[in-house]
Structure formats: C-alpha cells, structure tokens
Amino acid sequence: MPLCFVPLLTMGVTDVPPADSGLASGLLRTISQAGSALGMATVITLALGHARKLTALGQSAPQALTAGFRWGFIATSAVALASVLLSLAFLVRSRAAKQ
User: Fold this and answer.
1) Contact 36, 4 (CB under 8 A)
2) How far apart are CA 84 and CA 56, in angstroms?
3) What's the rounded Cα separation, in Å, for the pair 60 and 81?
C-alpha cells in the first residue's frame, strides 16, 4: 500500500495550477489521513463483530478474532479494488473528454 502513495499524490496534483499546489497537496494528505483512520475503524468494527458471532457459536477467542480480521480485511480489500476500478474509469473518461 505505501508504494501507491507517491504516484497517487502525483496524479492528484498534476493538473493543479502552481499557485494552488500547496493547497492541493495539503488537502490530499488530509484526505489520506482521514481515509486511513476510517479504514482502520472499519476493519476493527467488522473484525470484532464477526469475532463476537463466532465466540457465541463456541469458537475460541483467538480463532474467532483471527477469522474476524480475515473477514474484515477481505471486505475492505474488495472496497479498495472497487475504488481503484472506479478511479481508473473516471481517469479514462476525464482524459477522453480533454481530447
């Protein structure tokens, strides 16, 4: 995941006028931090909810928590993949509209 931050920041500020580049960079970093916090909260919420269900069914706490985090990471990975696909589709449309 860290390998994509620099290319994403570069893409995010490419068409910004030089006078606004500092503002755009700051906005992107703020959104990145907020997105990271929201993603972490989502994974933990999904993991603990699933783990509670599994412990209620009689599974041990460590196994339930591991399964819960697995489920949380799979769910958020699916959302991330959908976001990438939507971003690419938007980028293609944006470039096609400029030509």
Assistant:
1) no
2) 36
3) 32
Range 40-57 average pLDDT: 93
Give the span between the Cα atoms of 44 and 67, in whole angstroms.
12
The one-character DSSP state at 57 is T
pLDDT tens by residue, 54-87: 999 999 999 999 999 999 889 888 988 998 899 8
Sign for the CA dihedral angle at 36, 42, 48, 50 comes to negative
Residue 67 belongs to domain spanning: 2-98
Q: Are 46 and 79 in contact (CB under 8 A)?
A: no
The structure's pTM equals 0.66
Indicate the number of domains in the chain: 1
Contact 7, 33 (CB under 8 A): no
**In this structure, are residues 12 and 28 in contact, taking their beta carbons and an 8 Å threshold?**
yes
CA 50/CA 46 separation, integer angstroms: 6
